[in-house]
Specification:
Two copies of one chain form a homodimer.
Chain A lengths: L3 E3 L10 H4 L14 E5 L4 E3 L7 E7 L2 E6 L5 E7 L7 H4 L8 E4 L3 E7 H10 L1 H27 L2 H16 L3 E3 L4 H8 L3 H13 L3 E4 L2 E4 L2 H9 L2
Antiparallel strand pairs in A: 1-2, 2-8, 3-7, 4-8, 5-6, 5-7, 9-11, 10-11
Chain A binds a DNA duplex through helix 7.
Chain lengths: 229, 229
DNA sequence: CGCGAGCTTGACGTTGTTCAACTAGAGTGG
DNA sequence: CCACTCTAGTTGAACAACGTCAAGCTCGCG
């Protein structure tokens, strides 16, 4: 279950970019009507093919962004952490989401109506450029993902995922937010092979794994494996 | 080799979106300075990792957009035909291209300085939305591509590519602009397997192939193969 | 205590890549 | 005009990489 409540931005503990860039009065009428919504692990924040009505901003927690393919097999593109847009890619897009987002931990988001953001967008150059740049970075990262998934072997792809998570957590030792199956989806491999590679890396002394706690011991080696080998 | 000449938009035989959306005077000074450039087959129009300085608009010919991966292996994302933006994805992006574009036929493009387009962009809502929507469609198509490349077998991927080209040419019979190797890159498979699948499809009576001329005979069947199997 | 979710490992079969050899046609220079 | 060379296309066979299936293990929870 989830709760909703109207939020007032001036009292919001997590003032977001949209609020920061809002003038005191947005012409064209209509107020912001921000809506804070909480989700628990496994709950879907937005669903592929459903219509895009709000810009969603992640305030607390974490979530996975993935595309649903054939037979509902998932490919996990990246993990969202505060404070990032969730609805960003789709904001510029056709009216429907081309991906799904699901909470990994209990999470809170702020939803702002799309129309409001579009009005803000055309009035505020700085905000416009901010959105566009964030968007551009997403595209660049998707391009890299395509290369990784198609041209690296599974060891390289798992190494990539582990390094990605290390950057995300800003530490060489972190708690995996993902199950083995999800880590496999992030690397576009089967759960079984994901486990196998983790075991290999552990036996080779490259990483330490205790349940979901991962520690990278040989970062340079892992980087070499990620680059191909 | 390529030739350059300054062009005047009012006399341009291919007036583009940028021109159509330009007011008579763009405030903030600076004229448009459009530049028409011709390329021959195999010449590179823009190069992955080089800096983005112009918005490029394809006027005549055709070109392939691809990302260069490990060991210079290419993945062909799509084919550009008039009148489409080439530099579009990168316009919103970081200062460097995340892909390369190479002419498939002798082609002509129009280049407009990025700064000019950015000024235009913030002044003209309609143009802004036009760009954003074109951009959004690109993203949606890349998402579908990821699914295709990762979750379909090679028969399905080649079927996909043939159907894609059929939509592009608006005909069930068309001249392949691509070599077998390039058709393989579009499907992210090896040249040899690409040839093999084409032969299979031919023997099964699904397509007719005479050198580069392809005719789809059993479109429904091809669609089924593309959907998996 | 039993059950289910997450994790782990081995064995096996399929899929797709790579290597190698060969053909056809187009372009080039003696 | 013919030998040459280069590119594009084609096919077969060997091999490696992954996915799938099956079995079992652990831990937390009702």
């Amino acid at each position: 279950m989830r709760f909703k409540k109207d939020a007032s931005c001036s009292s919001c503990p997590f003032p977001c970019d949209i609020y920061k860039n809002s003038p005191s009065v947005v012409s064209g009428s209509g107020a912001m009507h921000p809506l804070h919504v909480s989700y628990r692990r496994h709950q879907t924040i937005c669903k592929q093919d459903s219509s895009v009505t709000h810009v969603i901003y992640l305030l607390k927690g974490s979530a996975k962004l993935y595309i649903e393919g054939i037979n509902h097999r998932h490919i996990l593109l990246y993990i969202l952490t505060p404070e990032r847009y969730i609805g960003l890619l789709s904001f510029f897009e056709t009216p429907r989401y081309s991906y799904s987002v699901t909470a990994l931990e209990d999470s809170t988001v702020c939803m702002v109506e799309l129309d409001y953001v579009k009005r803000l967008y055309v009035q505020n150059h700085a905000f416009l450029m901010q959105l566009n740049q964030a968007f551009g970075r997403s595209v660049a990262s998707i391009m890299r993902k395509i290369i990784t998934l198609n041209q690296k072997n599974i060891r390289g792809r798992v190494a990539d995922s582990l390094l990605y998570l290390s950057r995300l957590h800003r530490s060489d030792s972190y708690h995996l937010l993902l199950t083995r199956k999800e880590l496999g989806e992030l690397s576009a491999i089967s759960e079984e092979n994901c486990v196998r590679i983790l075991s290999e890396f552990r036996k080779e002394g490259i990483i330490k794994v205790d349940k979901r706690q991962v520690t990278i011991l040989e970062k340079d080696l892992l980087r070499k494996i990620s680059e191909f080998g």
